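Margin note: ligand = N-acetyl-L-norvaline.
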Amino acid sequence: MKTYTNVFDLGDLKQALAEAFEIKRERYKYEALGRHRTCLLIFFNNSLRTRLSTQKAARNLGMDVIVLDVNQGAWKLETERGVVMDGDKSEHLLEAIPVMASYCDLIGVRSFARFESREDDYTEKILNQFIQYSGKPVFSMEAATGHPLQAFADLITIEEYKRTQRPKVVLTWAPHPKALPQAVPNSFADFMNEAEVDFVITHPEGYELDPKFVRGARVEYDQRKAFEGADFIYAKNWACPGVTRPEDYGKVLCRDRSWTVDSEHMSWTNNACFMHCLPVRRNMIVTDDVIEAPTSLVIPEAANREISATVVLKRMLQALQD
Ligand code: AN0
Ligand code: CP
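Resulting structure:
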């Protein structure tokens, strides 16, 4: 695996899940693979889970890890070509990328949607520059339009907790005070569309996700109807994806707290498990009682981030050997 940005990079999902459960049983099985290899994790944005679980994964594989918070301690980076750099940015990404790449074997990048231009975000302008100019395998740690390490961990979690062969999985929008990216719902849809599940997406009108990720999934605007018979409820806020009205891209269009997942919402389901990628704002996205219930999977889901990252980094190290 040379890049990891979406579900298709994983190939056969059954095989990927088998590798995940192997790692879960024997976390250090591939410790020799990363000897004298260095993994660089570059953060343009905050992180708790990704920062810790990806470092742990790299160490499981015997690698050294370097973490760089670009906005704390490094030079401010210009990302646009052709700009006269007379402002506050001291260095250009086009020099910084090959320099950073010269110190490592694998590169993880976290660079959220900037909401300045839908086109820049949806063409993954920053992540693709790392892929193009680093000459090293690059994996997404949440880029502008996807968070595939999260979605792979979500798939592992669903596989572990499902009670039927083909569970009903519902992705529901929920309210949030700030504009959040679509990366998590996009990747979740990307994965669920390829998984053995009945997948339904529910959100207020205007929040339609990009067709590239929705593909054939059922979209149900009535949240109650969507929840009926669900085995898994996956909540997430996202700002307007600008699919129907490009001028609304990145805006908060709805603050309706009737979308907050509470115990009444959960009573519509088939005693569903509750999932969220975290960080979560309690009593905006989900009520205290639902996230604290025995059916809440948020902690094992976060723990599976170590597993998904270990599988992905293991495959990237194996590709370096070929
Ligand atoms: C980010 C998001 O919604 O994409 C990261 C989630 C993993 N969330 C926040 O910025 C609160
Ligand atoms: N879920 C997730 O990626 O969390 P962090 O933003 O804390 O890394």
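The domain at 150-301 is CATH 3.40.50.1370 (Rossmann fold).
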